[in-house]
Amino acid sequence: MGAAPAPRDVTSYGMGLAAPLALFFLVFFVAPLLQLLWLSLHNDTAGLHWGLGQYLHFLTDPFSLGVLGSTLLLGAEVTAVCLVLGFPIAWLYQRVGPKLQTVIILIVLLPLLTSVVVRTFAWIVILGRQGIINATLQSLGIIDTPLKLLYTQFGVVIALAQVQMPLMTLPLITALGRIDPNLDDASCSLGAGSWRTFFRIVLPLSLPGVIAGCTLTYAAAITAFITQSLIGGGQMLFMPMYLYQQASTLQNWPFAAAISIIFLLAVLAVVSVFTTLGRLSRGYGGA
Amino acid sequence: MAEAQGGRSLVVDAVTHRYPSGALAVENINLDVKGGEIIALLGPSGCGKTTLLRIIAGFIAQTQGRIIIGDDIVDSLPPNKRAVGIVFQNYALFPHLSISENVAYGLAARGIDKATRQREAQRLLELVQLPGMAERLPRQLSGGQQQRVALARALAIKPSVLLLDEPFAALDKNLRLDMQIEVKRLQRVSGITTLIVTHDQEEALSMADRVAVLSHGKLEQFGSPSDVYDRPQTLFVNTFVGSTNRMPGVVVSADRTAAKVRLDAGAEIIARPAGGALSEGGRVTVCIRPEHLQFVGDETGFAGVVGMSLPLGATVVHEVTTADGSGVKVSQARIGETRALENGAAVRLAPLAPSLANAFPATL
């Protein structure tokens, strides 16, 4: 053995070191999940009769399928809005001086420093019948009667997009920062205009960040219980609230458990599509 | 290959650039590059040579002056309309595109159809001696190969002017010489007016038809490699290009072609007034290269004591301490069996010829 021991390969450490965390996950994550699965496989609320009745009920009930569909659609809409609005911010961040970079990062992070409840109430103030938008439009004489913004899909998407924006912008900033700025100049000197450079060089090379951002935003948007419920109000029902009603109000635990499992599988399916795309785009890495 | 178009001329006309902070990046640069010429912009880092390259390419809009390519003033043109090819120091190949897609990129931007593009890319890859690499990705290539691809990509757009930014800095020494020969060959074949930015004087002297030496944003000298090396116009050029001994002295008498200088080290020598006229009684710095000093037997030169002798293969360098305490280096070619000089031996030194001692007014 040498005098100075070489640093050990991390994989050579005993798996025992991971035991505390593994135990924690086992007790507080895997066990409840299994319990949820066990619960969902019962046809009655008392949990006496085994069966797939809850799943059949959900999958044959147009209302339940509608809630699932609108939740997944909501996630897609929020993700799209975050991508379209977040990309220019991340792009700008890489092209301004260090002072402006600090300002941009502060603005991007600001939503994370405020409670979701506070941010959501702020949106109620902005979107309400007597809210800032309606008041301004009315005083300018553009509209006569207040627009219905609160308790609409549009309102939920806008509020969620603002709330989840950092999850999109931060991975994009990282991904764009990894691109050699000379590539821009090289593309330009070869005769390409800004749009060609963007679509042929910048966008493909930032794909890992786009996919990471989309995955995070999507997962966060569809499970955002507070914002969905407060901005969506009574008329708009999404999976988290549906689940909550079944479990807490109706005490239908087996059905709530089945909803959870179905929701979980639906989210996993969408996320795995994203990660597959991510793996395909990994060939672009390096540089 | 019907590629030699004679090359277009490039004129840098009184170009000055100020940073937003007000600091001067380059000041009143004038360069007149003939079509098909290779020019080296030589200077230490921070001398403004890269700024000048970016001005010519169109990435920076200069504060004053004009850039003229051929008969066209290109100042109002963005970089993508200037038809200036650039090879970047780190090559800046598109990592997600194959080698042939990289080479054909500029052609695609010009809307040339796919079949022609592929044929052109193939031809250029053969030109840079990389056939069979078309489908690989840049990271699968070595540094030298990547540089060939960068060259092919820049040549594909048939540029009026080719700009190379420190093109050999990232290559190891053996490969560097190969690539320098390769670039010179390609430049001859294509006849494209070429500008090489470098801080490496050997590279500048060996590759360029003419060398522009820059320091602190100013053009110190623009001339042939032998002009720059043998007839430097400023003290900076004399010390930056090649090595030299700086010997302080006072002008005894001077006219436009020769000056008699009394060196602080003793002895009077005849020197060339390199930086313009000298005034009698003024202090000067005389620059004599180590290979331009010789040992003399008579009383003509200045006296010194040999400190150390370093046999460097083809030459021997002697470190000599002069009467005023300063050290000078003398380089002697090793012809036959050179007698080794003993440590502490008293010698006398003189320049080989008056034209090889350059006198510059002393700066404070």
From TrEMBL, chain A:
One Pfam match: BPD_transp_1
Domain of life of the source: Bacteria
Cellular localization per UniProt: Cell membrane
Record-linked InterPro entries: MetI-like, MetI-like_sf
Membrane topology: Multi-pass membrane protein
Tagged with keyword Isomerase: no
Gene3D superfamilies: MetI-like
Membrane-spanning ranges: 17-41, 62-91, 103-128, 149-177, 255-277
Residue stretches in coiled coil: none
Family designation: Belongs to the binding-protein-dependent transport system permease family. CysTW subfamily.
Name used for this protein in its record: ABC transporter permease
Organism: Bradyrhizobium campsiandrae
From TrEMBL, chain B:
Domain ABC transporter, residue spans: 10-241
Pfam families named in the record: ABC_tran, TOBE_2
PROSITE patterns: ABC_TRANSPORTER_1, ABC_TRANSPORTER_2
Key words of the record: ATP-binding, Nucleotide-binding, Transport
Origin species: Bradyrhizobium campsiandrae
Gene Ontology terms, MF aspect: ATP binding
Purpose of the protein: Involved in beta-(1-->2)glucan export. Transmembrane domains (TMD) form a pore in the inner membrane and the ATP-binding domain (NBD) is responsible for energy generation.
Similarity comment text for this entry: Belongs to the ABC transporter superfamily.
Protein name per its UniProtKB record: ABC transporter ATP-binding protein
SMART domains on file: AAA
Alphabetical list of SUPFAM superfamilies matching this protein: MOP-like, P-loop containing nucleoside triphosphate hydrolases
